[in-house]
Specification:
With about 300 residues, this protein is of the alpha/beta class. The protein is built from 15 helices and 9 strands. The strands form 2 sheets. Strands 3-2-1-4-5-6 form a 6-stranded parallel sheet, with helices on both faces. The chain has a 3-stranded mixed sheet with strand order 7-8-9. Strand 2, helix 2 and strand 3 form a beta-alpha-beta unit. The longest helix has 29 residues. The radius of gyration is 20 Å and the shape is elongated. The N and C termini lie far apart (about 45 Å). The mean pLDDT is about 95.
Length: about 300
Amino acid sequence: MKIGFIGLGIMGKPMSTNLIKAGHDLMVHTPKEHVMDEVVALGAKKGTLAETAAFGDVLITMVPDSPQVRQVALGQDGILENARPGTTLIDMSSIDPNETRAIGAALLEKGIHMLDCPVSGGEPKAIEGTLAVMGGGDPEVFERYRDLLMAMAGSVTYVGPLGSGNVAKLANNIIVAVNIAVASEALMFAQKSGADPERVYQAIRGGLAGSTVLDAKAPMMLSGNFKPGFRIGLHIKDLNNAIKAGHAVQSPLPLTAQVMEMMQVLRGAGYDHEDHSALLRYYEKLVDTTLTPREE
């Protein structure tokens, strides 16, 4: 397929690379010129926003948040101005589902369909091409692009009407955030109680407390490796969107709000560019110790 791909950040770059490997014809656009050059070297074409919006039969956006999606979709030189009727926008960003619905309605007036297909799995699975995709939109349009999505994914699940993909992604990130926080709390409790937190982790990971989150993040906490797969700053953005969406439908999210405030403490301390497993640092500050001896 001819694809216009907009947004080549920590996730978008490897996702676009996997589409090139799958044989698709890509034009790419991102504010960082050197990143575009890296993807062009792999076989993509470089375009302005307007050129990229006009290039493809399908457009993919992978940008930070709702304002950026709105700007790319509806703003100057964007998709509404330049894409042909019949084009489909697949927004793979994680944004407020209410914004998704509003943007989709505006695009549809010009005959441009929109799917919201956010992903889970972080940078490692983006590189592997094994992301989990959660989709919302017209089911017939979604099925038309399932194989395209599978070039970047290990699983592709249709959730429901437009906005449903982002609802699923926010639910995912609520669960991940609270899991990381409680894993941090439990491992610090183990160490302060005189047990080896590594052995405690090994003892509980096969039981009911075991989870994908625990297996992905506990080893990072135990080694003090907070190299970002998913940055705290981005998780704050998602939790803010979740709280906003929850308020819109009178669904309280007290645990989500608590973890978001913990992340805000870390942002204030300068850790917002670290992996969200650095939630451990919040507990380390509370008890003035580190989980395991390590170099800072």
